[in-house]
Amino acid sequence: MISAGTNQAPHVPVLISEVIGALALHEADTAVDGTFGAGGYTRAMLSAGAGRVIAFDRDPDAIAEGASLVPDARLTLINERFSQMDRALADRGIEHVDAIALDIGVSSMQLDRADRGFSFSADGPLDMRMSRSGLTAAEFLNSADEAEIARILRDYGEEPRARAIARAIVAARPVERTAELAAIVRRAAGFRPGQKADPATRTFQAIRIHLNAELDELELGLAAAERALKPGGRLAVVTFHSLEDRIVKRFFRERSGGTPAGSRHRPEQRDPREPTFERVAKPVSPTERELAANPRSRSARLRSAVRTSAPAWMGSVQ
Question: For the chain, does the N or the C end have fewer beta carbons within 10 angstroms?
C-alpha cells in the first residue's frame, strides 16, 4: 500500500521477500494478512507453505475481487477492519495465530482507480473511502470549516502551508473532483511545473487518513495483533510515511520493554507489565533493485518482532 499521487503502475507487493522472511512460515501455520488489497501478501503466504491464511480488508471491492483465490481451501476472506481481527478470528473458532502481516495505507488497487478518488493522477470524484461507506472527501471538504481543514492538513499531511491551502479550498467550494482539488492546492502552495514534489500529495494523504481514521485503526490493529498472536508468533508491519512508522516504532519499543531511560530531571518510569514482544528487528527499507523495479516502494519501511508468552496489555496503545 502506498501514498496517493504516484504514477500508475501494476500492483507489486512491497518488501515481499523481507515480509515473508520475517513471518518465517511453516507448513502447519495459520497466518493473517490484515490488509488483503490485491492479494499480494496472501499469495506469497500460501506459496510459502502456510497451512491456512485468513485475509482481512475493509474494502468490499477487494474482498469481492479476491474471490478468485477462494478455491484454495487454505484461504478465508473477511470483509472487516484489521483492528477487529481477534474478534473475527474468535468468531470462527481460532484463538491464536502464528503470523500476522500488515501493509498500512491505501492499496495500489484503490489508488489506480480514478472512481475511488484517492489519487490526482487521473481525474475522478472526491471519494477516498476505503470501506465505501461514510463521509466522502467532497462532503468533508464542502462542509468543514477552514480551521478544521487546516488542522487535518497540518496533523496528517505535515503540510507547512495548511492555513493557506484550507483558505483556498473554502473559497473554491464546492469542490467535487480530484483534479479540482489538486489544482487548488497547487495554486495555494505556489507550485510550479517541474518542481520535484507535488504539494497536492500531502493534502490528499491528510484527507484520506482523516476520513478513514487510519492512525487510530493502526494503533487498534497493533493491539489486536498482540492479542491474536500465540507465543512465538511473528508480526510484520510495512508503513509508508513517518506518522505510521512512529506509531509502529513506539508500539514495539513499549511492548518490548524498551521505554526511554530516565534522567535527573525525569526519573525512569518502567511499565510494570511484562514485555509482549521480543527480537524486535531493525527497520528494513527497499533495496536499490526493488526501488528501480517499483518506485512506489521508495518510502516503505518494515518493522517486525516476535510475540512472547506474556499476557496482552489491556487498554489502548499509549
Answer: C
**Alpha-carbon distances of 53 from 30, 31, 194, 204, 214, rounded to whole Å:** 6, 5, 45, 32, 24
Domain ranges within the chain, ordered by starting residue? 16-109+214-307, 132-211
pLDDT computed for residue 316 by the predictor: 45
Q: Kindly tell me the sign of the dihedral angle through the C-alpha atoms of 284, 45, 54, 119.
A: positive
3-state secondary structure 136-204: CHHHHHCCCCHHHHHHHHHHHHCCCCHHHHHHHHHHHCCCCEHHHHHHHHHHHHCCCCCCCCCCHHHHH
pLDDT digits (tens, 9 = 90+) for 229-251: 999 999 999 999 999 999 999 99
Whole-angstrom distance, CA of residue 75 vs CA of residue 50: 10
Give, to the nearest 10 degrees, the angle between helix 146-157 and helix 162-172: 140
Rounded-to-integer distance, Cα 12 and Cα 15, Å: 9
The third-level CATH classification (topology) of the domain covering 132-211 is DNA polymerase; domain 1 (1.10.150)
Length of the chain: 318
- Does this model's pTM top 0.70? My answer is yes
Q: Are 280 and 305 in contact (CB under 8 A)?
A: yes
Q: What is the CATH number of domain 16-109+214-307?
A: 3.40.50.150
